[in-house]
Specification:
single chain; about 150 residues; mainly alpha; elongated
Amino acid sequence: MRKSRLKLKPCGKKFLILLLVIYLIPFPMFAEPPITQSPSSTERGTRLYSDSEVDLLISEISEAAHEAIEQAAGEAAKAAFLISVEREAAAYREAAFQQSEALRWRLEAENNLLAIKAAKKKGIKNTVFGVVIGIFSGLAVGTLIIGGK
C-alpha cells in the first residue's frame, strides 16, 4: 500500500501544477476574433454632401434602378414567351400523338371490317357447300333405300 501512495504523490503534484497553470495564466482563444471596440467615426472622418450632390446621387441610383427594372422586365417577357412556346410545342406533340393513335385505330377497324366481310363470304360459301352436300347425300341415301326395296 505504501508503495502506491508514494507513486501517486508526484502525479498529484503535477496535476495540481497543471490546474494552476490552466486557470491562472490566460491563454488566447483561437478561432475567435479578438473582442475590440470598433473605432467610432469622428467629424473628421465623415463627409458632408451638398444638396446638389445628394440629388445627383439619387438621380444616378434611380436611373440605374430603372435600367435594372427594364432589364428584369425584358428577361421576364423572354421567359414568358419561352414558356408559351414550350406549351404550344407540347400541345402540338399531343395533337400529333392523338392523330397517330386515331389513324392506327381507324386502320385496325378497317382491317377488322375486311376480316368480317371475308369471314361472312367464307361462311356463306361453306353453308352453300353444306346444303349441296346434304341434298346429294340425302338423294344418294334415299336412292339406296328405295332402290334396295
